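Notebook B, p. 112. Complex prediction, attempt 2.
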Amino acid sequence: MGKVAVVGAGMTRFVRRAQETGKELSYLAARMALDSCGLTLKDVDAVVVGSAPDAFDGVHMKGEYLADGSGGWQKPTLRCFVGGATGVFAPIVGWYHVASGQFDTVLVVCEEKMSSCHPHPQGAFLTIFDHTTERALGPNLLWIFALEMNRYMTVHGITKEEIALVAVKNKKNALDHPCAHLGSEITVDDVLNSEVMAWPVNRLDVSPASDGAAAIVMCSERVAKRVSDRPVWVEGVGWHLDTAYWTNRDLYYPRYVEYAARMAYDMAGIKEPRKEINIVEPYDPFDYKELHHLEGLLFCKPGEAAKLTVDGVTARDGDLPVCPSGGLLGVGNPIAAAGLMKVCELFWQLRGEAGRRQVPGQPRRGLAQAWGDLMQVGTVVILGI
Amino acid sequence: MSVKITHWPGTSLSSADFAEGRVLTVRGGVKAEYAWDAGVAIGRYLEELKRGRLVARRCDGCRRVLVPPRMFCEECFRPTDAWVRLADTGTVQTFSISYVRWDMVRLTEPEIPAVIAIDGASPGYGILHLLGEVDPKEVRVGMRVKAVWKDPAERRGAITDIRYWAPIREGG
Amino acid sequence: MPERVAIVGVGFSDLRSCTPGVSYKEMMFEAATRAYHDAGVDPRKDVHSFVCVSEDFWEGTSIFDEYVPDQLGAALRPVQTITGDGIQALCCAAMLIRTGTARVVVVEGHSKYSDMRTPHHIQQFAMDPILNRPLGAHANLVAGLEMSRYLYESGNTREQCAMVVAKNRHQALLNPLAAYGARITPDDVLAAPPTFFPLGELDAARPADGCFVMVLAAESAVRDMAGQPVWIAGYGWCTDAPSLESREWGEAAYARLAAEQAYRMAGIASPLRDLDFAELDDAFSYKELQHMEALRLCRPGEAGEWVEDGVTRLDGEFPVNPSGGSLGVGHLLEATGLHRVYETVLQLRGEAGPRQVPGARRGLAQSWRHVPTTTGAVIILERE
C-alpha cells in the first residue's frame, strides 16, 4: 500500500442560499485547494466528486453535471455516494485511487446546493424511506433523528440539557470560522426553549441546511515530498454499512460507526484512541449525534460522552477537542461538503494553520467521521503529521 | 494556509435579493413516477395486511423471525424458511412527537411515530408506524400497544391498513 | 508491484423487459447467490468489501445505497456506492485490492427499469436545468444530434448503422439471457419510424431489468477460489464535457481517453492485434461504430465498412458484441457495463456455448453512461 498525503484544502463559505451554482461552488473550492499547494488542473490525474441526493440540486446524474466545476473534464472522474457519510467517504475513495498506485495526484471535491430544492430541502429526504412499508405513513427526516435520540436518551438516562451543551459548544466554536453559516453564542436554555420540532428534537438541536463546497488535494508520497513542505498523511480509513432493516436494530448504539472506526484504527495501528488521537471531528448534524458518535468511535464507553462534554473535555482547549471547527451545527450542513470540511479542518489544525480555531498543544493526529443513510453508515478518516 | 487566507469565496443571498429581482432563478421540476414491484416477501406481507394479519419470515439458520419479512436472511445469506404469523400487539421501542410537517409547516395535531417491536418476532424486531388514541404526554418507551385496523372493506393491501397502534390498557 | 486482480465469480438474474414477480432486492439476491456459488465464497466470511452502482432517480429512492447491503450478504460490512457504470465499480474494486487492504471484493449493478413509470422525464432531468431543460427536448435528441454529426464527420452511413442493429439482434438469438434477440434486416431498421432523425426507433436499445454480481480477488487469494480466474489486464474511465454547449459531437473522446488508460496499463500497442473480440457500447446503433473508431480498433471512418464486410460478426475476423450488445440483450442502466464484462468472462472461460469466439484469449468491454453524459469506461480481461 502506497502512502497517501493531503497537500491542499479549500472551501467556500457555507450559506443559506449561495448565488453561485453547484458547478461554481465546486470550482471555487477546487481552485482554492489547488492554489493552496501550488498545483494546477494539469497536475491532477483523477477527480473524485462527493455529493448527496440528486434531489437537492434538482439534477439527475449529478456527478456528470458537476464534472466541469470540479475539474473532472476529460479526466477519470467518479462520484461516490453514501448518503450523509459521503463527505468523509470521498477522501477514502481519493485515498484508494492513490494508495493503489493507480494515480499520483487526485482532486476530491464535495458540493451541495440544498437551496435549489423547493419548497424545502427536506423534501429530498422524503423518499429515503422504504417505498412500500414506510413512505405511506408520511415520514420525514426529523423522525429518524427523534426516534434515535429518544432511544439513546432513554437507554442511558441522558438529559436534553446535557445534549444541548453540544449545540452551545459547536455554535460558539463556529464564531471563529470564517466560512460559518450559524456561529453564535447561545445558552442551554436557548436550545431547550427553541421551538419543538419533533420531540425530543428542538430547532437549535439541528444544524442548518446550507449551500457550499469543500475540496482537498491528495497525492502519493513521491509527489507530496515535491510539492509540500508539510504534507498531512492518511493514517487510517474505515467504513461500514449496516442492514437497511433499521427497525430491527437497537438505535441506542451506532455499531456501524464502531466497526468503521476499528477498521481505521487497525490500519493506523491505534490501540487506545482516547490517548492516541488529539482532535476529533465527529459528524454532528444534530447535537446528540456528536455524543453518539464519540461512543461509537470508542473515545468513551456507551452513555459516557455526555459527561465528557459537561466536564469540558471536548472544548477546543480541553483534553480532547471535539469539533473545534464549529461542526455542522455551527459552520453549516451542506451535506457532503460539510463532511469534507471536517477533513479540511484536520488538515489546517495539524499544520498549525487554523488561526483563531487552533487547538493548543501541536496536535499530531486527528479523526474525522461522517454518518448517513437510515442511521446505518459510518465513514472514518484518520490524518497525522 | 488557512491563516494566510484572507478571502473565502461564496456569495450569500437574502430573501430581498430574490424579491427585488437582483438575482434570477429558473423554476422546474421532474415528473418522476414509479410502480415498485413489491416482490415475493413484501407482496405476501401486503396481502396479509389486507386480511388483518401481520406475518414474518423465519430463518432456520439463525432462528430469527424477521419483520418486515424477506425471502433471504441477511445474516446467514441463505433463503429464509417459513412464514410465521405474528400477533398484532407489540412494545414501543422508541417514539417521537412530531409537530412539523416535512416542509417545516406546523401541524395542528402532533403525530406520534414509533418503532414498535411486534410480539412473535425476534426480540426488538419492529416496524415503523404511528401511535393513536393516546395523550402525547403519556407515551413511554416500553408501552404495550395493539394495532387498530381499518374496516376490511377499506383495506388495500398497504401498511396503512393499520390506522395506528393504541395503548393496551391495564386489565382491559 | 501491486498484486494482479482476477474476476473469480459471476452471477446474473434473468434479463427481461419487465420482472413483476420479484423486487429489486430479490433480483439482487438471485444474482449474488449465483456469483458466490461460482466463486466458491461465503459473503459473510470471505468478502472484505462491496462496491455497488446506482442512481437515485433510476430507483425512485433518495440515498438508494441504504437498501443494498442485505441481499448481497453485506450487512455491517464495508459497502460503497458509485454513481456510475458497473465497469467503473470494477475499477474501484480493483484499486481497493491493489491497496493491499482488501483481497476479495464484490461488485453489483442492476436495472429495475420497469419500476419507472416516467423514465423519459427522469432521463431529461439529467440535462442542464438552466440552459437545456427549459427547451423541453427529449434526452435522446442528444443522440440524434450526435449521430448526425458523427455520420457527417466519419462518412459512415445510416445503412451501416442499420446493419449493426441487424447483426446484434441476430447474435442475441444465441444468448439465452438476451431479451431482444430477433431476426430483422437492415431494411426493417431503416423502415422503422424516425425518432430524432437520423435516429430511428430501432436504432435505440430497449430497456431491460436484470442484475449482475461479480467477485474479484487478489492473485494471492485466487488459489482458494473455486471459479476459473479471468485476469484484469487494464482499465480506464473518463468523463468528457459535461454540457451540450461544450460537447464534442463527432468523436467519442471519453472512450478514446478511457481506452488509452487501459491500453497503457495492459501494455497494448495495437488493439486489433492484441485483442480477440470486444463488447462495445451500442446503446444506439451508431455508437458501436463511433466506439470502434475511438478505441482504435479501426481507423476513423472505417467502422462502417467493417460491419458491411462482416468483420465484426460472430464468425468474422474481429467479433464485436458477441452477446448481442445492448441492442440485442436490452439496456440495463448502470448494469450495462457489467453485462458486457459477464459476456467477456464467459468467452475467456470458453463457456459461451454457441456464441463462443474460438480461441479467445483477451477481450475488451466498454461502457457509456447513455445520454446526456460523456462518461465511459473500458476494461481489458485475459485468461492465463
